[in-house]
Amino acid sequence: QSYCHRLQHDMYFLTSTSRLNEQVVDKIVLQLNRVYPQILTNEEAEKFRNPKASLHTRLSDLLKHLQKKGDRHCQEFYRALQINAEQLFNDLPSRKILKTPDPTEIDTDKEQYMLNDRGPVFFLACFSVAAGLALFWYCCNSETQVIGRARRILGFSPIIIGRHVRNICMLYLEDI
C-alpha cells in the first residue's frame, strides 16, 4: 500500500480531536521544512504553522497538501510523525492493518505447536486405548467366530500388556 493511500486512510484518525496537539504539529511541520529533502517550503511551513487558523484545519490542509505532492512526501510525514509522536504513530489504523496477518493465511508455527503440544506419550496412550477397545469389541461380538484367534493373540500379550490384564482377558474369553 502506498503512503498516500495510508495517509488517506489515517486522515480521520489524525484529525480527530485531541490526537495531535499544536506543539507536535509544529514540530512535524518544522521537520518537514528543515530536514533534507525539504518537503515543505518556507511559505508552506508558515501557512501550516499559522496560529490564527484552527489546528484541525491546518492539519487537514497539511495532509491534503502532502497527498497532492506524492508518495515520498507522505512517507516523510510518517517518518516525522514517528519521531515526534511515536505512540500515536503506533496506534494508526494503517499500522494495525499492516501488523495483523492475513486471516486466510495459516500460521505454520502456531499450527505446529497446536498439533504437537501433547507429545508422543499422549499419542501412544490414546492409540493404545483405541486399539484395546477395538480388540475388546471385536472379541466380544457374538457374531464372530474368532475366539481361538483372540486367544493366540492374547497368549503373546505379556510383551504388550501386563500378565494381570492378560489373565483377566483370558478368563473372560473362557467364560464366553
TrEMBL record:
Its predominant location is endoplasmic reticulum
Under the heading InterPro entries, the entry gives:
CARD, CARD19, CARD_BinCARD, DEATH-like_dom_sf
Which controlled-vocabulary keywords does the entry list? Answer: Disulfide bond, Endoplasmic reticulum, Membrane, Mitochondrion, Transmembrane, Transmembrane helix
Q: Does the keyword Isomerase apply?
A: no
Its placement in the membrane is given as: Single-pass membrane protein
Q: Name one GO cellular component term.
A: mitochondrial membrane
Subcellular location(s): the record lists: Endoplasmic reticulum membrane; Mitochondrion membrane
Q: One Pfam family of this protein, by short name?
A: CARD
Q: Which residues form the CARD domain?
A: 38-96
Q: Which residues cross the membrane?
A: 120-138
Gene Ontology biological-process entries: regulation of apoptotic process
Q: How does it assemble?
A: Associates with BCL10 by CARD-CARD interaction.
Protein name (database record): Caspase recruitment domain-containing protein 19
The organism that produces this protein has a lineage beginning with: Eukaryota, Metazoa, Chordata, Craniata, Vertebrata
> Gene name on record?
Card19
